[in-house]
Amino acid sequence: IDEAHNLFERARGMYSAELDVRLLLDISKEIKKDLPLINKKLIKLRKALSSLEKEAGKPTSEAGGEKYNATFKAPVSLKAPLSEFITAAESWVSGEREDKPYTEKLVNLFFDILHFKNILEIYSDNYCTLMTGKKTGFCLKLVCLDPSAMLDLKMASAKSTVLFSATLSPLWYFKNILGGRDDDITLKLPSPFPRENLLILNEDRIETRYIHRQQYLEANAKAIYDWAVSHKGNVMVFFPSYKYLLDVLEIFRPLAPDFEVLCQDREMDESAREDFLKKFDHFGDKNRVAFCVLGGVFSEGIDLTGEKLTAVVIVGVGLPQISPELEIIRAYYQNKGVSGFSFAYTYPGINKVLQAAGRLIRSESDRGALLLIDSRFSSPEYLNLLPEEWHPIPRTSQGASLYQIACDFWNENTKT
Predict the structure, then answer these.
(1) Over the stretch 30-86, which tens digit does the pLDDT of each residue have?
(2) What is the pLDDT at residue 208?
(3) CA 42 to CA 56: how far, in whole Å?
(4) 304 in Cβ contact with 362 (< 8 Å)
(5) Which of 141, 163, 237, 283 could form a disulfide bond with 4, CB atoms 3.0-4.6 angstroms apart?
(6) Looking at per-residue confidence, does 365 or 16 come out higher?
(7) Angle of helix 36-56 versus helix 79-94 axis, rounded to 10
(8) What is the pLDDT at residue 251?
(9) What is the mean predicted confidence (pLDDT) over 350-363?
(10) DSSP letters of 119-162?
């Protein structure tokens, strides 16, 4: 299993399922004349969801600005209406049908409901029922909090399974969440790349926690500029959110009028992503800085070798935004006797950091400069999660001049 650091989230998604009242309502309106029997069963399912909403009452919790209810009881009252809809719709789905405006949507809904029914049948102690929204905006989700048992079952069917990635840190955490057993072998290999080819500096005088972001926007922009201007090359800057990216970008542009500044769009199709990356085929001609989102399409899975990418800046420690699901996961692991916050937020966040940093050095001859912006990178909690070969990491609070250190590195390591 390659890129095994993604397996946990992908497995959680695969073993979770949801029903959205708004979607049921919209499709019901479209099919009521042509498919009255299927529509009747769809209405019955919608009413069963409404009953669960009423039974839950007003939301009892809030996370990330979203109110919600959560229970560890399976919504068994949905089993009958789910089955009735599937029975009513399956002959239409499997048979020859007219091509109507609703056809594709109804087929997709059929398989979504079939998936929901299948997940409901395996609902167990590692699940939670999450309810958000109200009335026509009501959504019910069967959240798989921990897919490790299912992954273990799947891997047990093979003679052996090898999971690997460049960013399985901490290793014991991934072994825990990916269904590993006590007697499973783990192997950690050092980086094959020369350490002297990588410059790392921690700008620890800047705070990136949400409550401090506004205060440090100018300092952020200046640090990025100093890191980029020290060498005429291509730089990628990764932010924990798109809003944060735009706030710093607004200040950065006037600082660097001669730079070519690229910005990742919120929505980019395959063609737009390819055009974005083609910009990095040009290097050494000007300072080129790309503002990107940490954990997004450009922070992993891309290969910019040689001078296509010469520096990376990572703003923040990558903590996911607080959400109902993550808060439930945090509580779930806390109840299991481990640090719930670390499992839900810290470890997934640092994994994003390591993936983004991994864009920089792609071969034994590559050289690059990595700037980590956040005081938390200097704390033992985070230092212990960073690769051993990165240490020791100098900090600006110790008197290190960000611009001078970068200049010295490039003066000594100018690529030919």
Answers:
(1) 999 999 999 999 999 999 999 999 999 999 999 999 999 999 999 999 999 999 999
(2) 96
(3) 21
(4) yes
(5) 163
(6) 16
(7) 150
(8) 97
(9) 93
(10) HHHT--TTEEEEEES-GGG-EEEEEES--HHHHHHHHHTSS---
Q: Burial code of 358-397, b = ≥16 C-beta within 10 A, e = fewer? A: bbbbbeeebbbbbbbbbbbbbeeebeebbbeebeebebbe
Strands 198-203 and 127-132: unpaired
pLDDT of residue 416: 42
Q: What pTM value is reported for the model?
A: 0.91
Q: Tokens representing 150?
A: 């299912």
Name the pairing type of β-strands 234-239 and 127-132.
Answer: unpaired
DSSP letter string over 278-295?
HGGG--SSS-EEEEEETT
Pairing of strands 288-293, 260-263: parallel
For residues 311 and 198, is the Cβ–Cβ distance under 8 A? no
Amino acid 237 reads V
Distance between CA atoms of residues 280 and 134, nearest Å: 47
Assign 153 a pLDDT band (cuts: 50, 70, 90).
very high
Side-chain-side CA neighbours of residue 84 (13 Å): 16
Q: Enter the tokens of residue 38.
A: 């299927």
> Quick one: which of 333, 272, 284, 329 has its CA closest to 309?
284
Please return the burial class of 138, using the count of CB atoms within 10 Å of its CB with bins 0-12, 13-18 and 19+.
buried
Distance CA 326, CA 328 (A): 5
Helix/strand/coil for 70: strand
Contact 381, 175 (CB under 8 A): no
> What whole-number distance in Å separates Cα of residue 350 and Cα of residue 346?
6
Give residue-wise pLDDT tens across range 323-340.
999 999 999 999 999 999
pLDDT at 123 over 70: yes
Q: What is the 3-state secondary structure (H, E, C) of 215-276?
A: HHHHHHHHHHHHHHHCCCCEEEEEECCHHHHHHHHHHHHHHCCCCEEEECCCCCCHHHHHHH
Q: For the range 302-307, what are the long-range contacts, defined as Cβ-Cβ under 8 Å and sequence gap of 24 or more?
A: 302/277, 302/359, 303/362, 304/234, 304/277, 304/280, 304/359, 304/362, 305/362, 305/363, 305/366, 306/363, 306/365, 306/366, 306/415, 307/233, 307/234, 307/283, 307/415
Q: What is the pLDDT of residue 415?
A: 47
Question: Taking the CA of residue 285 as centre, how many other CA atoms within 13 Å lie in the half-sphere pointing to its CB?
Answer: 7
